[in-house]
Task: structure prediction
Amino acid sequence: MNAGNDATQPLWFYDFVSPFTYLLLEQHEKWPGFDFTFTPVVLNDLYRHWGQSPAYSVPAKRTFLYRHALFRAEQLGIPFKMPPAHPFESIKPLLLATAVQGDIQFVREIFRFIWREGRDPSSDAAFAELCERVGQPDGPELIKNAEVDAQLQRNTADAIKLGVYGVPTFYLNKQLFWGEDALPMVLYCARTPNWLDSKEVKRISNLPSGLAKSRT
Result:
């Protein structure tokens, strides 16, 4: 296990519960040519820290979220099948990926099990099958290691320190890029990093709020 993530290197934060993270990973051939460290985090812990409500907690937003994910998959030509229930508990595959420091092939296989085949990885039977598929048949025992859980917590805490508030998130050149639809911006900033230093970008990055902090 690592003590912490190296914030001087490109990082990619993910949680298996996110359909848009799956869609972004399926576009890996379009990513900028950096060696991103794949970093699992607990999305709900990010939400709790920043005081955010999950998108799926609002009924109309939840419906749109699932429709939009399906629409994006169809537009991109990516196989997509929602698992039988969402949200689901993603801690088991997160711990598994943490335990083996999963690379792109490993992480992508887990995402495909969930979002291409429509499987729920939280049940004991499905998780055992997933472990066999990714070559870790001892996975159900492996994730019981306290140090694995501690590493996942460190990953999430480190992400929060960097300002990460959702997944998928690229961390590149000390900047955050959130969402599947942020890929064009990531590519542009990888090619033209001085855009972020432009006068207007700096101005809007430091705008004051026009709302009172509290109302009585």
